[in-house]
Specification:
The chain is α/β, with parallel strands linked by helices. It is built from seven helices and eight strands. 41% of the residues lie in helices and 28% in strands. Strand 1 and strand 2 form a beta hairpin.
């Protein structure tokens, strides 16, 4: 299985053309719902393999130590889990723990905004399925930093090439994307 196989699943299941209003409020001729691909068993396997390969290459080339991977629910959840599971299967000594960031802190219990395997002091990879303006990724970064985490870099499945990468990188956080609008279409 290859990047071409993942691209084929994304194009079949996740990419739609027409007129759409995006989460950012912007109008677009392109809608990408990566959840359909990320929740497909074959899509998840491919995302895990490609995502782990891209993440591991960056970790090794820069000598990073990463504790965990996660991002804003719901889009980041299956991607983070797929990459985490692949890391544990292929390189158990480098396995990444997985967490999720709620849109708002929980109103009961411990009132946490970050759930799962994350603790203050962790160095993490923040994940998003699609970036347009980078707004939801930046919200996740804010929550992670507020809870004592350090974001090493971002992993995104699709960069729409509409300013999101630049907004995230202006925060000092490099972006690794598996696909861009131009490489997908």
């Amino acid at each position: 299985m290859s990047a071409a196989d993942l691209k084929a699943i994304l194009l079949e299941k996740s990419v739609r053309t027409g007129t759409f209003t995006l989460a950012s409020g912007k109008q677009s001729d392109l809608y990408i719902d990566c959840r359909v691909t990320a929740l497909d068993p074959v899509g998840a396997i491919l995302i895990g393999e490609m995502g782990w390969a891209a993440v591991r290459e960056k970790i090794q080339s820069e000598g990073l130590h990463i504790d965990a991977i996660g991002g804003m629910t719901m889009g980041a959840d299956p991607i983070s889990l797929a990459v985490g599971m692949t890391s544990a299967r292929l390189h158990p000594d480098e396995a990444l723990q997985v967490f999720t960031v709620r849109k708002e802190p929980k109103g009961h219990g411990q009132g946490k905004q970050i759930e799962g395997n994350f603790k203050s002091g962790d160095t993490v990879i923040v994940v998003d399925d699609v970036i347009t303006t980078g707004g939801s990724t930046l919200k996740a970064i804010d929550a992670i930093e507020r809870d004592g985490g350090k974001v090493a870099f971002a992993l995104v499945l699709v960069d729409r090439e509409e300013g999101g990468r630049q907004a995230i990188e202006e925060r000092g956080i490099p972006v690794v994307s598996l696909f861009s609008r131009s490489s997908l279409l």
